[in-house]
TrEMBL record:
Keywords on record: Membrane, Transmembrane, Transmembrane helix
Keyword Transmembrane found: yes
Transmembrane portions of the chain: 6-28, 40-58
Organism lineage string: Bacteria, Pseudomonadati, Bacteroidota, Flavobacteriia, Flavobacteriales
Protein origin, superkingdom: Bacteria
The protein, known as: Uncharacterized protein
Length: 190
């Protein structure tokens, strides 16, 4: 419960700070006889604040096919046919995650499975316990790690890379389900 109160207090301070800046952006020019300038500046700040808030709340709704292709291209996965975005969710205060599910064509599914199986580091056999970050010697400044393997339910293409000292590393997993034409992408910053 204490952490909840802490975040509420931070939110209140942030709101008071933003309202104070907007008020000062109107009041200071008004005191110098430039009321219209104060109105213009404060309105620009209000519009910018509203856009920022809406973007944060509707981030998952503002996710498009071009964003999907960009995320997948980082791991050299390309979808040639049309696909449908089934689900998209992200969040987290300290540990950020992003996950989306796609319905893909059968030919794209087969080509991605072939890409995974033909990878140099493909692990034959089924491995349901694989967690790539455990293999990292230095989570923050080490090498980028890659894995291509299969579980009982899916073929997986994973990458783990550090973002530098003081920044959380990134872990990305692309899963191609064995029983259906679906792709799941997960990104975890932990």
């Amino acid at each position: 419960m204490d952490i909840f109160v802490f975040y509420i207090l931070i939110l209140i301070v942030l709101i008071l700070f933003v309202v104070g800046i907007i008020y000062l952006s109107y009041w200071v020019p008004k005191r110098f006889g430039k009321k219209k300038l104060g109105i213009v500046i404060s309105r620009i700040l209000i519009i910018g604040t509203v856009i920022l808030i809406l973007t944060l709340f509707f981030e998952d709704k503002l996710f498009f096919k071009s964003d999907v292709k960009e995320y997948l291209s980082f791991q050299k996965v390309e979808l040639k046919d049309d696909f449908k975005l089934i689900n998209n969710e992200s969040g987290g205060l300290r540990d950020y995650y992003h996950k989306f599910d796609l319905e893909i064509s059968n030919s794209d599914r087969k080509s991605i499975i072939n890409l995974i199986k033909s990878a140099e580091n493909y692990q034959t056999g089924i491995n349901n316990e694989f967690y790539l970050p455990e293999l990292a010697k230095n989570r923050y400044e080490g090498d980028t790690l890659y894995a291509n393997y299969q579980t009982t339910w899916a073929y997986k293409k994973a990458i783990f890379y550090p973002n530098g000292k003081g920044y959380t590393p990134t872990y990305r997993i692309i899963s191609i389900w064995k029983e259906k034409n679906e792709l799941t992408f997960e990104e975890i910053l932990d």
